[in-house]
């Protein structure tokens, strides 16, 4: 089974009036930094914060009356759960969402607040999925797969119809890949409308399941990633052949680039993106020469990032840019030494955030002490001038690079 442009167009007609079109915006500052022209498709602007609403809604609207009456079931600990719950409730369809037992309470509560019955089962996603299929069979429920379903994939493909309607001359599309539903649907539509467009899929380096499957390798992936939305261990039986046929290239990006993409979208574009939502930009930042001078479309697939993780990403980005640093400064253990250090830093334009005065545990002479100072600074150049000024004043100074 596969899908074609007619399926994507049928999905677009089906969801019309049920789902608002998401914006397409030019990202001029990001494009200037990367040396290309960038347009962003803001799938993080859906009600539940991700593109998953497209596929879930198309699937739900395609059900027969008897299936709607019986209800639906899905397995998900993330965006798919909320998408199914949201639109099933809106359409008057009973929904059950099976989540692994380790799912954070906030996600459970959010899904229940959208009207779903949540069942916690199993220690792994595979356990939850098996239980969901068993429950579907026992209760006569229709299983709504997160990606390996033709109606779901066709629904996700409507994002490409909208994108190319607004920016028809895109050279390249950068699309995140987890199980492959989004890229399968979008590639189907985009290649049919413009066979010359280059489709590049993006996976996180810890979960390169699609890359491995395309190469005929055994799947070997796992680990903690900021891009949970694409941390999928098995591509779909429907999506894999479509990706093999229509996608020009699949690349992988590491955690550092994914963090940078989330940071850049937030600080330069004023957009909140989850790790998976920033994957397309991460790939571009990882190899800008590949896209130099091109007109690139990037799908910001979701914005459901934990606020604590986002706060850490923003702080780490400031450290990376040299706008927050920690300096270790050697001083004599004598009255007035610390006040002189703080005066010099203030005169040099640094704002002191925290000071740690250490006499006992560092390997320093008994008549010396070390001060760790966390500072707000302008940039890396400012940091280097601060360090030079402190050394010229007789205070040995080192940049501590393990700030996180």
Automatic annotation (TrEMBL):
EC number of this enzyme: 4.3.1.19
Record keywords: Lyase, Pyridoxal phosphate
Entry-linked InterPro entries: ACT-like_dom_sf, ACT_dom, ACT_ThrD-II-like, Ser/Thr_Dehydratase, Thr_deHydtase_catblc, TrpB-like_PALP, TrpB-like_PALP_sf
Location of the ACT domain: 326-404
Regions that span the bilayer: none
Gene Ontology molecular function, alphabetical: L-serine ammonia-lyase activity; threonine deaminase activity
Record's catalysed reaction(s): L-serine = pyruvate + NH4(+)
Gene3D superfamilies: 3.30.70.260, 3.40.50.1100
One of the protein's GO biological processes: L-threonine catabolic process
Cofactor(s) this protein cannot do without: pyridoxal 5'-phosphate
PANTHER family assigned to the protein according to its UniProt record, in alphabetical order: L-THREONINE DEHYDRATASE CATABOLIC TDCB (PTHR48078:SF6), THREONINE DEHYDRATASE, MITOCHONDRIAL-RELATED (PTHR48078)
Family: Belongs to the serine/threonine dehydratase family.
Protein name, per record: Threonine ammonia-lyase
Source organism of this protein record: Azospirillum griseum
């Amino acid at each position: 089974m596969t899908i074609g442009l007619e399926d994507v167009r049928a999905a677009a007609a089906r969801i019309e009036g049920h789902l608002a079109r998401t914006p397409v915006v030019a990202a001029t500052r990001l494009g200037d930094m990367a040396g290309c022209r960038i347009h962003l498709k803001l799938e993080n602007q859906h009600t539940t914060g991700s593109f998953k609403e497209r596929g879930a809604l198309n699937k739900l609207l395609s059900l027969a009356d008897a299936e709607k009456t019986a209800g639906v079931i899905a397995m998900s600990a993330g965006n798919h759960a909320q998408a199914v719950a949201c639109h099933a409730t809106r359409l008057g369809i009973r929904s059950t969402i099976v989540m692994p037992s380790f799912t954070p309470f906030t996600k459970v509560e959010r899904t229940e607040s959208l009207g779903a019955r949540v069942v916690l089962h199993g220690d792994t996603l595979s356990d939850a999925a098996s239980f969901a299929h068993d429950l579907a069979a026992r209760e006569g429920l229709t299983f709504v797969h997160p990606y390996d379903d033709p109606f779901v994939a066709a629904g996700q493909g409507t994002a490409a119809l909208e994108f190319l309607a607004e920016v028809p001359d895109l050279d390249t599309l950068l699309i995140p890949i987890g199980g492959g539903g989004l890229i399968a649907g979008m590639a189907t539509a985009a290649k049919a409308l413009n066979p010359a467009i280059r489709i590049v899929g993006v996976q996180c380096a810890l979960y390169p399941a699609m890359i491995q499957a395309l190469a005929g390798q055994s799947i070997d992936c796992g680990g903690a990633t900021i891009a949970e939305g694409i941390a999928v261990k098995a591509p779909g039986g429907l999506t894999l052949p479509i990706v093999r046929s229509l996608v020009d290239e699949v690349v992988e990006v590491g955690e550092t680039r994914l963090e940078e993409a989330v940071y850049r979208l937030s600080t330069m574009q004023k957009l909140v993106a989850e790790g998976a939502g920033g994957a397309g930009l991460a790939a571009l930042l990882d190899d800008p020469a590949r896209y130099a001078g091109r007109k690139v479309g990037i799908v910001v697939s979701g914005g459901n990032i934990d606020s604590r993780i986002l706060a850490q990403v923003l702080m780490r980005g400031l450290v990376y840019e040299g706008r927050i640093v920690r300096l270790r400064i050697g001083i004599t253990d004598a009255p007035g030494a610390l006040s002189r250090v703080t005066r010099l830093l203030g005169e040099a334009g640094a704002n002191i955030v925290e000071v740690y005065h250490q006499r006992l545990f560092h390997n320093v002479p008994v008549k010396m002490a070390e001060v760790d100072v966390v500072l707000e600074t302008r940039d890396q150049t400012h940091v280097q001038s601060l360090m030079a000024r402190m050394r010229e004043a007789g205070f040995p100074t080192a940049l501590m690079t393990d700030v996180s």
